[in-house]
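This protein record is not my work; I was only asked to verify it. Where you disagree with what is written, explain briefly why. This is what I was given:
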Amino acid sequence: MKDGFVRVGCASFDVKLADVEYNAKQIMEYINKAENEKIHVLTFPELCLTGYTIEDLFHQKRVLNEVYKQIDIIKNHTKDKNMVIIIGSPLLHMNQLYNCAIVINRGEILGIVPKTYIPNYHEFYEGRHFAKAMKETTEIMINGYYYPFGTDIIFEANKQQHLKIAIEICEDLWAPMPPSTRHCLNGATLIVNLSASNELATKADYRRMLVSSHSARLVCGYAYCNAGLGESTTDVVFSNHHMIYENGTLLEESVLYEEGLIYSDVDLDKLMSERLEMSTYENAYDDYTYIGFDLEDDILELERYYDPYPFVPHDETKRAKRCKDVFDIQIHGLIQRIKAAHIQKLVIGISGGLDSTLALLVASMAFQKLGYPSTDIIAVTMPCFGTTSRTKNNALNMMKELKVTSLTVNIAEAVNQHFQDINHNPDVHDVTYENAQARERTQVLMDIANQEGGIVVGTGDLSEVALGWSTYNGDHMSMYAVNASVPKTLVRYLVDYVASLYQGQLLETILKDILDTPVSPELLPAKDNEIVQKTEDIVGPYELHDFFLYHHARFHYEPAKLFRIANIAFTDKYDAPTIKKWLTLFYRRFFTQQFKRSCIPDGPKVGSVALSPRGDLRMPSDASVTAWLKECEKL
């Protein structure tokens, strides 16, 4: 499948107990429906061919003979289907009856997987009818042909490198040692579970938790297909509860008590990328049987949601919790650095923008927890050629509201003197003009920190680190960078969250205006006291770059795949040429600016994406970006 996506489906219907012919017709109808939806892997519930609740009718020859007849009919029906189908059925092997999953592809049975754990407690009484799976893979005869029969079987696509399917049946998942653990350690990426789990109050929640945690622990796709309508309600009720998970994330779920088909597109490339990074995800090399099958590649119109803001939860409650977690990490990271450095003073450059505001709020809260006087936080505003009264006044008001020591150091004269020293024309507003101001500001902060016996707290965020949007040995440098792994799209929500912790003018006016201020380094002369240098006009929208960064750094997507999902995520906001333009710039800057990341200051990791050379990203500063840019040209 293109870009590693496989469309996985779960189907259920209103079974007729012991009416095998009727149930087979329903299975074939849903196979046809799945074909229309371009589903590649389709599973049905446990024992769906007969019904799960037929009890001693499992021993009836009329039922079992019809099972074998209908298996052949279903098998022949799939000859022209670009699909792997898994159906649940009882099967005889030697002297015992087994609860099985039959795996079919293009008119052929690939193999049979029997249920490992047979529940015989509470409402379940399977031990009366079914034997437990044997430990070794053997062969089973069905209608005159022998097929692999055992639990340790992985069905792998010949053309799709990462599609490797293994089977669990209901109770297998609930057992202390689920078979899927071994399956995944032996290469399986997609676990399919044919289930007949009855419904109880709150059981659906537990079922979700179980499948979610299991798929996360095994870093796999997990399709859970449950029995439902038509099953006997003598003592229990079944609800048709189907779920499709990917590494702990729910992709699709059925409506309880409704028959039908659900499906979603599972990203196998992403799963493999996660596994490759986990040094503890080891291969088991057990004695498994690997069975190949053929699927033709489809170019799917992806029907899965991609959050345009992967760092920012949409749900307000979850977002508040995320902000609290991040803010707490920042605070306690800074507290530990203060204690380790044996200092009691902090120096922070305050521009009146979001990043420096967040850093100051972190410092203020850290001092409150330490019981240190807020006056030992020295906040410095350093106006120069591009500073506007709006940002300067917001900075000064913030300092006053938080009761920190406020210093104003106008650096214009010092920068002009520097221009004379290096013979630079101040009318030439080039990179020298801009960076001279940034480096002068950093020098001022460092020297004040020396005077006061404190440390400089850095303010740059993760998005700026990714793009190299900082002046080397200027704002690039500090003694502890509290925002270093906080993405720009989250910063404004953090500031908004922290505002709710304070009372008075800080909440009502100052922070609100800071949130509304355009992002700018203010290094070019202001025009009519208004900001003229807007960062996003130069490097592109931060919401796009944060999206690119998340999927590039977290899952190592190829440019074509990243472009594809960005178009889905931002379909109503940016057109394809715009996304291509900024994606190309993202790659160029991400690679060429690595030299700045190779020597960034310490700072706390707050989320799953960070770029510290001591932690998450070890990359040569002279790595070539050519391969990525060539792919971008083809988009």
Notes: The chain has a mean pLDDT of 92. The chain is about 40% helix and 20% strand. The CA atoms of residues 333 and 604 lie 6 Å apart. Residues 316-341 form the longest helix (26 residues).
